[in-house]
Amino acid sequence: MKTYLLASAAILGATLLATAAVGGTYALLNSSASAGQTVTIQAGSAAVSITSPLVLSDAQLYPGARNVGTVEVRNDGTVSLALRLFGLTPPTAQTALSEDLVIGARTVSAASECTSSLTPTITGTFRSAPVAELGTTLAPGATAMLCVSVVLSADAPSASQSQTATSFGLLIDGRQV
Predict the structure, then answer these.
(1) Using CA atoms, how far apart are residues 107 and 135, in angstroms rounded to an integer?
(2) Cα distance between residue 46 and residue 69, in whole Å
(3) Using H for helix, E for strand and C for coil, what is the string for the chain?
(4) Average pLDDT over residues 28-49
(5) Which of 11, 29, 38, 173 is deepest in the core (most CB within 10 A)?
(6) Banded model confidence at residue 117, pLDDT cuts 50, 70, 90
(7) With contact defined as beta carbons under 8 Å apart, do 138 and 77 qualify?
């Protein structure tokens, strides 16, 4: 019986030693530090404003013809914003002409760059309004100039002749970066 007790004690001791040797690590960590003065976390604000009106040429359009004009956009917020075209608002009175207009926008560094030969970064129609980045980031207080173009689709039907399209809108916003 004594032999069995010694053997059992030896097996128990070997099991404990083997378990300890396998390498289980246990730790309880506890730490604290004083922040001293009160810490305030504040969110920034995002605000975009149009600082100049968009004025387009009143030249008559024909299929493929393009009218252009500039508009200035300012970041009135406290965070940097990536400008984007967020859609189009169709003219108040839909006509055959307005159904065939293609609206475009592109950032330019000067009004003299905004010509009818400039290819817009983004284009869309009132039926398929775009939501896309303009590729320009504005720091707080900074401004950017956009060249806006209006093109009559090359395959516009003859019903578009002698029609007008007034009071449409571009929705410009900024995404915080």
Answers:
(1) 8
(2) 26
(3) CHHHHHHHHHHHHHHHHHHHHHCCCCCCCCCCCCCCCCCCCCCCCCCEEECCCCCCCCCCCCCCCEEEEEEEEEECCCCCEEEEEEEEECCCCCCHHHHCEEEEEEEECCHHHCCCCCCCCEEECCCCCCCEEEEEEECCCCEEEEEEEEEECCCCCHHHCCCCCCCCEEEEEEEEC
(4) 75
(5) 173
(6) very high
(7) no
Span 112-117, mean pLDDT?
Answer: 93
Round the average pLDDT of the chain to a whole number and report it: 84
The answer to pTM > 0.70 is yes
> CA-to-CA distance for 108 and 122, rounded, in angstroms?
13
Q: Say yes or no to pLDDT of 25 above 70.
A: no
Q: Give the pLDDT score at 121.
A: 93
Which residue is it, tokens 């108040």? 92
- The amino acid occupying position 78 is T
Measure the CA–CA gap between 92 and 74, rounded to whole angstroms.
27
Cα distance between residue 71 and residue 83, in whole Å: 13
As a whole number of angstroms, the distance between CA 7 and CA 173 comes to 81
Task: Over range 122-151, report the average pLDDT.
Answer: 93
Residue type, 54: L
